[in-house]
Fold these 2 entries.
Entry 1:
Amino acid sequence: MMCKVLIFSCISAVMLMTAAYGASLPPEKDGLLRALISDLQLLEKSKDKIDLDLYTPNDKKECSWQTLQCYLTEMHLLEDEIENKDIDNLQNIKKNLQSLMDLIHRGTECKKCEANGKKKFPAFHQELKNFLISMLK
């Protein structure tokens, strides 16, 4: 009986520590987030040359899937605007956004992409980067 109490106490302590400090991300999700942030930094130098208004979602954690879907949809619009040297980078971003979405539960009661306001590409770029960084935490 004493052994069961000790085991239960240890499990409870681990659960409390996980809740307090946050569970670590699965390696695949962590790797995708870091790759996306790195790829976005490579687009940094081109962001002032792109003159598009793009739907830019609010970074709500409970709607991560829909937020990523919105960013992915808007990324398709960049193909005609981006310099040829950045096409591979854009393709990597789109591929990794899709892979990340495959790892995330689809939220409910989240607004559609078109319900968000539009922002110029530099602001869109920064919001996406901030959202991905927040997902690392």
Note: The domain at 25-136 is CATH 1.20.1250.70 (Growth Hormone; Chain: A;).
Entry 2:
Amino acid sequence: MKILKILYICWVVFWIFVWILLFLIGHNPDGLKSFLIVIAWIILPLLIFVFYHWLRTKKRKFFYISILLLLYYPISFIAYSIYYFGVQGFFIKILSIIYSII
């Protein structure tokens, strides 16, 4: 288990480094798509591990952990949008999405 934790930490550090490196070389100036891909690559092994334990043991603890891990996506998207668009631009973008749905 200790080896898996070390591998997971290396996995996270590697993908964060790749995401920063992509911006430095100018691969994707928008960055949102690459950001979401990197977030998915970071959390995917941990999410698979938690779902596996939840299906194997049927304990509610693992179900709650998986739900909390899935909350990481909207929180990271909000943080990225506020950083990229600014606070006012973020709320304008959210309102435009809501109005386009309605």
Note: The two ends are 48 Å apart (CA to CA).
